[in-house]
Known about the structure:
Layout: H1 3-23, H2 25-34, H3 37-46, H4 53-89, H5 108-122, H6 124-146, H7 153-183
Amino acid sequence: MSSSLKTKAAITTGVLLASFLLYHKSAVSTFCTKHRGFRGLIRYIWIGDHLPPSIRKSVNDLDEICHDMMKCEHQLEQIEIMIQRALLECVDGPTTMSTDMNDPNKTNTESKDEIQKQIFQQNPELRKDIGFFSTRLDRLAARIDSVLSYLDDEVKMRRKQLSNKVVELMEELDNMIAMLHSASR
């Protein structure tokens, strides 16, 4: 191929590319915005990823945490079912009245504590599961806090969303425990 033919091919390719980009400028603009501007677009074309390695690690960590969060939501549903079942099983009160409960000198709170104790005796896995779940949520919160944002808005936003979700799960668990305590009263 002669140099003039190569030059003509390069110019033709450039003109075609420029006209394509001008014709689809809104799509190109959206693509650039989605992939963090022109630098992200170049990085996407050259490396295959629009994120710098440090931010990619943070995003991957948050994706993993999000996956674990879905498992936690499922586990919380299982705990709620266990609590509901335990409450239904003790709806008629204790199955055996101890002689202490018939004692008129015994206060009402002591009998409530015995009912709650009986619930946990009938369902020993309930106390263990609640404790493990609470610990799991604390660890998730710590993992979210350990993800570095590198002042990236997307990472900051996802960290905030995941932190809020952990708080919601903790509040739901606290409400279930309060429901269990109030049912024993």
